[in-house]
Amino acid sequence: MEKFEKKISFVIPCYHSENTIEAVVEDICKEFPSEEYNKEIVLVNDGSRDGTYAKLRELADKNSEVVAINLSKNFGQDGATMCGLSQATGEYIIVLDDDGQNPPYEAHKLLEQIEKGYDAVFGKYRTKKDTLFKKFGHDINDMMATSFIGKPKSLQLNSYFVINRFVRDEMLKYKGAYPYIWGLILRCTDNTANVYVEHKAREEGKSTYTLSKLLNLWFDGFISFSVKPLRLTSCLGFVSCIMGFLLTGVIIIKTIHHGDVPGWPTMMAATLVLGGLQMLMVGIVGEYVGRIFINGNHSPQFVIREKYQKEEQE
Q: What is the pTM of this model?
């Protein structure tokens, strides 16, 4: 078989995956042998508190194609992915999870599609082997991505995807403190596609997907990459104002015809609703202002504590 001409970089953000990442790397090496593919495997430890980085170093010692990177703290999956992209040197960059749910043999399908001229190709799952909470979070995230950052309805976004060098270079131009991988891809190209891939059940450990991480993902994606939440608050404010005027008119009319109208509970409820909407709007505006402040302070997307790669022996 002829050797694949273009270099491939596999980027894997790692978090508490000391028991799963070795099998993922072995599967990559099995599916993409060095005799047929020029590749590298970039493993980024995102502040794990177990022995993940020691395992990454061990894998790098065994294979000069493996690059082990240790971040100084937990920067989140998107920050760790941006770190991996910054270190990737391939013409095609394949991003996948560290838990074995994205089987490396399906990467051939991604490469086959991107070779047709696409800038980015996302895996599409017929059946997702995730918890109900994670599925719910993904569905909401997908809906909001369509509404706020212009994702085509027909495009399914997932953490298993391949991009070309052009997209990678454009993504790295973003220096904000809150990277959102899907948003960065979609803002630089609409030349995207899906291909069906298998999604395997988690064989070991529990998902670290929490409500806090879900909310952070939403904030990163839809406040850092869209002004539509601000426009939504303006619409809510306008609707609340109209409702207030209508309620005032009703009270005036009833007072004229019936005298004083006992309505303290109604007025109190209306005040609480309007006050809650105002606080919500102030909170969203404050989130924008806070992010502007943090970006102005040049807060980093990630900080590399150590990078390790075994020198290739001739």
A: 0.79
